[in-house]
Specification:
Strand content: 5-15%
Mean pLDDT: 85
Largest sheet: 3 strands, antiparallel
Number of helices: 14
Length: 487
């Protein structure tokens, strides 16, 4: 995900600094979500790497014994598509979205104000040439995770009546037209990054990638596919176009041997296949792909995990950590909140989510610091921070993509605060979180990412699509009386 130092004022940033910031944030996906293959740790082949429970070295990481893994129960079955057929030419016709007979409505003034503020980001960062939304404010660059957020934000805004039918139709038709002509690399899957102004392939450092040598992300594409599924489910008049677009992508590459499978660039223009995801993100992506009949069965049911205690609360963590797998096992709010808002919690995931909230409440009681951890962009170096309850044997770490610690930059996440309140509105702590971030917004550009726990540092002035989209999603979830978006 792209992240950028967006200040409250209008100060300019030179192009070199801009590209460095984007590279820094994009490398987060490469280093922290994807698995690599140090030869002394992994049992690798030259071209394919699969991180399964039997081919990583737990003795090189934490020494906790493996606890039994509860088999994940299936989510309630929404309507899913039959297997996709080969793409067909898209008929030339005007599509008018179907309107719900009874649209969800925001009944509280604070919720309506929040929705209007979050939509400001989209007004400033939607590109009329392509229908794509900037990942970060005023930067014409994106990943597919961020475009998944963008689609869901636009969908939520229409459902909440923040934009007219005509404007919604313009946004969706422009996006689908772009996707129908999207340049693809030889892999047959969308490249990791694109320009939002031209829809041309970009590298993770925001330089041209005309041959699409940046690889693909199973996690990113899973979020985007989930967003397209929600769109086609609620507006079936778009189903044919969406299905034709997706049928042209080689989605079978996203799963190998039951695990999520991504591609990372190597020297010489080659792309190496790697296992993607750790506990939380892995299950979110696997449930999303399941809506397209793509079965990542081992990612759902067999992640290698342990139990740990943090502030007296028992939490499940991934045994595949930085030392024994090359990827960090961050335990943070984001995947669990997105699962709740968009898909719905299984019993196992709900138990983990509830304990995740409890441990943040416990930290607040112990320190008197409001706590809502998350992955988020920053308005200052290192420009992106992964704030977690637990990672690599450490509790409450706040680290950069290079694993450098920045404890003084811990922050309360705006999107996490809105989401926890939407999912658990009767909990007094979530009400405190929501109240703390209600006004963390620019008058013209949307919600800021959050505010620092160190009060002297004040607001984290970074602006990005994920924060504002998730706020809109959480408000729609409330207005739909706690029904997940897939239904």
């Amino acid at each position: 995900m792209a992240n950028f130092n967006q200040a409250l004022g209008n100060r300019a940033t030179d192009l070199i600094g801009l590209n460095n910031v984007i590279l820094e944030s994009a490398l987060y996906l490469e280093i922290n979500r994807h698995s690599f293959c140090p030869q002394e740790v992994w049992q690798c082949t030259p071209s394919v790497i699969i991180a399964a429970p039997d081919n990583f070295n737990p003795d090189s990481g934490n020494s906790e014994s493996t606890a039994p893994v509860e088999e994940v129960k299936p989510v309630p079955k929404p309507t899913i598509s039959p297997p996709l057929v080969a793409p067909k030419p898209t008929p030339e016709k005007t599509v008018v979205p179907t309107e719900n007979i009874s649209q969800p409505r925001l009944t509280k003034e604070a919720d309506l104000i929040a929705a209007q503020r979050a939509w400001k980001y989209f007004e400033r960062n939607w590109n009329p040439q392509t229908g794509l939304v900037n990942s970060s404010h005023n930067i014409a660059w994106t990943t597919w995770w961020d475009q998944g957020s963008a689609v869901l934000g636009i969908f939520a805004a229409r459902q909440l009546n923040l934009l007219s039918t005509d404007v919604f139709r313009q946004h969706i038709n422009t996006l689908l037209k772009t996707l129908e002509t999207l340049p693809l690399p030889a892999t047959g899957l969308p490249n990791k990054a694109y320009s939002t102004s031209t829809a041309q392939m970009q590298k993770l450092n925001n330089t041209p990638d005309p041959e699409g040598k940046s690889g693909w992300s199973a996690l990113d594409l899973a979020r985007f596919l989930l967003a397209l599924h929600i769109l086609r489910s609620h507006y079936p008049e778009y189903s044919d176009r969406i299905n034709h677009i997706v049928a042209g992508w080689k989605l079978t590459k996203l799963v190998k041997d039951g695990w999520l499978n991504g591609g990372v660039p190597e020297s010489g223009g080659k792309i190496r296949e790697v296992q993607e995801g750790r506990l939380g993100y892995e299950q979110y992506a696997a449930h999303s792909l399941k809506l397209w009949n793509i079965q990542a069965t081992k990612a759902l049911a067999h992640p290698p995990s342990d139990k740990v205690q943090v502030d007296g609360i028992t939490l499940e963590i991934d045994r595949r950590n930085l030392k024994n797998s090359g990827a960090t096992n961050y335990l943070t709010n984001d995947p669990y909140l997105l699962l709740g808002l968009e898909i719905g919690w299984t019993d196992a995931i709900k138990a983990q989510a509830e304990n995740l909230l409890k441990v943040q409440v416990q930290r607040f009681k112990r320190t008197n610091i409001l706590t809502a951890v998350n992955e988020d962009s920053l308005d200052r170096p290192p420009y992106f921070l992964y704030y977690s309850v637990y990672a690599n044997g450490v509790t409450w770490p706040a680290t950069s993509v290079s694993e450098k610690s920045y404890p003084h930059l811990r922050f309360i996440s705006t999107k996490a605060a809105f989401s926890w309140y939407a999912l658990m509105p009767d909990d007094p702590y979530t009400k405190m979180l929501r109240d703390a971030v209600q006004n963390l917004a620019s008058l013209k550009n949307g919600y800021f990412t959050g505010k620092y726990e160190n009060q002297e540092l004040g607001i984290n002035n970074s602006l990005d699509v994920n924060t504002n989209a998730v706020i809109l999603e959480s408000l729609l979830y409330q207005a739909r009386k706690k029904r997940s978006l897939i239904f």
